[in-house]
């Protein structure tokens, strides 16, 4: 592992929130004086429908957010295009690509030297995300052979096999050299503390 980089506050739920906010404004525009907060079940229901719409827009160019009797018997239906979804989340998409670029800089790797790009996480199914990665790396052969929702679990299973000595000889020949993305701290009973900054550099520590 050369480097790791990310934003713990940026993920699929943020895309959902943008859709929810959009639909809430649309509902209030159609029904002035009505507030979805009046019913504690309304917003969770709307959120589920928005998440479903987000998933559908990965394979369709248009879908509908539809909730029967969303608030006090009022039905809600909104046609949503993929282009609208991309516009609502444009800043999140830009931020995601900035993190990719930042990770390469931390690891000292040129984008032209990257052999493969593996999609990990459900949000990498979003066509806009894939298109931006293809443009950024100048290639259209992103690795899609592994389910993005299973990629992390598969990697963990391989590492578990290495640690337990299970699996084929090919698995046992693997060696993972990871980095510490976060700071680690040690404290003694006397109050003395040691802080090791995380990063992409190799570091050895001895505690006596």
TrEMBL record:
One GO molecular-function entry: ATP-dependent protein folding chaperone
Superkingdom of the source species: Eukaryota
Signal peptide: none
Keywords: ATP-binding, Nucleotide-binding
Protein name: Heat shock protein 70
Native source organism of the sequence: Alexandrium monilatum
């Amino acid at each position: 592992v050369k480097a790791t980089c990310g934003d713990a506050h940026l993920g699929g739920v943020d895309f959902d929130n943008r859709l929810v906010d959009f639909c809430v404004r649309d509902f209030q525009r159609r029904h002035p004086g009505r507030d979805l907060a009046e019913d504690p079940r309304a917003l969770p229901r709307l959120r589920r429908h928005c998440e479903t719409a987000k998933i559908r827009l990965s394979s369709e160019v248009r879908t509908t957010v539809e909730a029967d009797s969303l608030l006090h018997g009022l039905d809600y239906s909104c046609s949503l295009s993929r282009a609208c979804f991309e516009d609502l989340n444009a800043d999140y998409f830009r931020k995601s690509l900035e993190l990719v670029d930042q990770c390469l800089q931390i690891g000292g790797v040129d984008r032209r030297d990257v052999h493969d790009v593996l999609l990990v996480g459900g949000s990498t199914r979003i066509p806009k995300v894939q298109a931006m990665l293809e443009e950024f790396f100048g290639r259209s052969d992103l690795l899609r052979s592994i389910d993005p929702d299973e990629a992390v679990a598969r990697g963990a299973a391989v590492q578990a096999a290495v640690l337990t000595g299970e699996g084929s000889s090919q698995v046992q020949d693997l060696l993972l050299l990871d980095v510490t993305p976060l700071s680690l701290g040690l404290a003694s009973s006397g109050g003395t503390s040691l802080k090791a900054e995380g990063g992409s550099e190799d570091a050895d520590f001895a505690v006596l």
